[in-house]
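Field reference: sequence -> structure
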Amino acid sequence: MTQHGFFFDQSRCTGCHTCAVACKSWHGFSPGPVKYLRIYEYEKGSFSNVRVHFQWLVCYHCEEPLCVRNCPRDALYKETIYGAVLIASEKCDGCRICYDVCPYGSPAFESDESGVKAQKCNMCIDRLQLDLKPICVLACPNRALDFGHLRNLVIRYGDIRDLEDMPSSKNTKPSVVFKEHAKKRQLVPYDVEKALTLMMKRDPLPDIFKSIVDVLEVPEGVIGRNRLVVKHKSGDELMRFTRNDEG
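Structure field:
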């Protein structure tokens, strides 16, 4: 077996969801919680050091998949040509142990009802058999994704297997390499306190905020998504964390 895998360039991703829409379209899914591919958008920091993060998550077809090891029905297996982790739907009883043990929350379910069978990214193996790349890779308008032999991806892009805020790759060895976004830098130096003082005033209307501390120290809960959450308690929570605020 030659392990195949993905490359994700975080510095190129704009959170447009084109890859996610293409994935749903290719597999014939309606809008809803069955998402083989998820795009997460969240922000961290405070003025003047705010950063919007985008993270691309699919099944990373781990070299040591915990889902395969822990499935009581042997419904999950690693196929021998591309190294894809696949699911035999006829064996799945909907116990969701695969979801519980997967650090990335990759298995998908049509609803929260008991007994609903798991579904997951299949590496677009039907396309691979036609010498085509996965649909998400071809759909990305910013070329933030690539696919191929994992060893070739490592040679070309480096061997970064972990990104900030992502679960550790230590126990699963995901078949993916990353390029993280560049460190943020201030292009035009300015006095932060002076800038906020000027922004606060909008005569003759009341001040926008009472103190610059209100902007510099944002209370927990004011920002809707200020962290990466990849495991969800319900389908509704999944939809909330993977929505596109740009519509």
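Note: The CA atoms of residues 165 and 228 lie 6 Å apart.
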